[in-house]
Amino acid sequence: MKEKLARGLNRMLDLMGYGEKWREWKRKRRAMFEEWELMYKALKRSPLAKAGAAMAVVFFILGIFGPQILALINGLYSLLYSQGIIKQKIVLDPYKIFAGPRLGKPSLLHPFGCDEYGRDLFARVLTGARVSLIVSVVVISLGIPPGILLGLVSGYYGGKVDEFIMRVTDVFLAFPALVLAMAIAASLGAGLKSAIIALTIVWWPSYVRLVRGQVLSARENVYVEAARAIGVSNLRIMVKHILPNIISPVIVLATLDFGTVVILNAALSFIGLGAQPPTPEWGRIVYDGLDYLMMAPWYSIIPGTAVFLTALGFNLLGDGLRDVLDPRIRRSIEFASGRE
Amino acid sequence: MEAPLIQVKDLVKYFPVKKLFITVGQVHAVDGVSFEIMRGETFGLVGESGSGKTTLGRLMLRLLTPTSGDVVYNGRSIFELEGGELKEFRRRAQIVFQDPYTSLNPRMTIYDILSEPINVHKIRIPDKREYIVKLLETVGLGEEHLYRYPHEFSGGQKQRIAIARVLALRPEFTVLDEPTSALDVSVQAQILNMLKELQSEFKFTYLFISHDLSVVKFMSHRIAVMYVGKIIEVAPSDDLFSEPLHPYTQMLLSALPVPDPKYTRSKQIIKPRGQVPSAISPPPGCRFHPRCPFAREKCKAEEPELREVKPSRLVACHLYS
Questions:
Q1: Interface predicted TM-score (ipTM)
Q2: A121-336 is a CATH 1.10.3720.10 domain
């Protein structure tokens, strides 16, 4: 079946005149495809990594398609209402007050219960996934590139440049991440935006450290010297020869950090420096629920569990990736899966 | 007489030895070396491990900066070159490394590895792919290897790829830093023959570094012997083997096995005394004197200079003064 499809595709491309180009493109990237296949196989072999990947994927799907999911459920509810199966009209909306009973227990219609204003907690936690996703994507994608760049420069050139960059990095690393983020967020004024800025500022130094260390060992490789002998420029050596060979631990750390950012952002909101009400942010919801912990324990526990599961998922995935990307461990997997 | 392609003038390279940020000594890796290489010649460089052969090779390509001294290429000091001129030098002078297992970037396909020199120097060729396939064919590989990664090749094949990378630029001068010492004997012979054929085809100049005397004899026109950072003897290949002058060279050659069971050694093996001196604190005077059977008082105090004692025979030893 699969082969038939591939043959059909090839014939179609041939007819369109792209056949040879497509095959050449595939030949060029054969090794890359094999690499991915291998990583996929290796991930599949580890149940923990699989579970982590599943959690991470669920987090992404909920974050991206949260509103659509809510709309779908609301559509179902209005259908049920029009059929007379449920008595009152219910709309799940993270901001709509008195959508359900105050501090209502989890029920079929309000699966996670309601808060003290009668807002539906399912809608709020679901929307919170999107807030956390945006924060972690922004922080990771803005915080890591400068870290990689500075680490590359620092490790490759060494000397005074290295000394300067590393001492500045040390200053940032001297404070615990949360304390520094709190200080920055507080000075910028509470809000989701300042939480993002604070976390981004906190985030790059650990990558400088990591990348620099990797570069220090990678630049001693003979192929780097060979590139220099050919006349390759420093920039090209850094980007083409060193970076691809040191990127694995960066990918692992970034995956682990996805979870950490979610936790820290929740922590900032929890102490009131991050997202402000009525923004449905997980840490904030946990804090709001504290007053009613005895009467409505689900109020705090459910968003707390969401934070926990997200962080756990990324940690398991990161550990799994580390095993896959570590050549020594991977070799054993290669042998086990019958590939030399 | 034709001007030499490369002149090495009193080249010195010390590496500092640090303990807790304090420099406690210096490794005298290359310590005052001078010689010339003619165009189209293979200049052999022998010496034991740690004698500074590799450092010398790297200095001559400006992969290291010397402590003092100079390397003159085509009439210009290579350490003064900048910008475009340096790039031009990089195109003309190339190196093949000892260990083919680490000299190719594991994340690049053979196509990427071989197209890099062409891209960097913007060499104009009508069909890059065809050119690279031709390069591969020159070194005995083929089109089917184009999109493979280095780890999919054997050591000998990797070394062929490294040589193809050098060929891509058609360099005038190539440093061959023990190109065969990581390979087994049958592959060694193939690579060496290939290098020789390439030389006669493209008129390359080689600096051939090795610790294997028979390989150096096979490859080189002239040979220099290094001992603890210094060149102690330079001679045409055949002369060096028929009539070694320096006691150290004699010692080296007498240790060379002869592949003939009926052969009995005409001369006795000269047995070395003691150990190779530390390159951090080399002995005063002649560096070989603590081990030399012919050492005299003068050898302990005065450092012998490399002088011409017979036509085209240079030796640094007080025995010949």
A1: 0.84
A2: yes
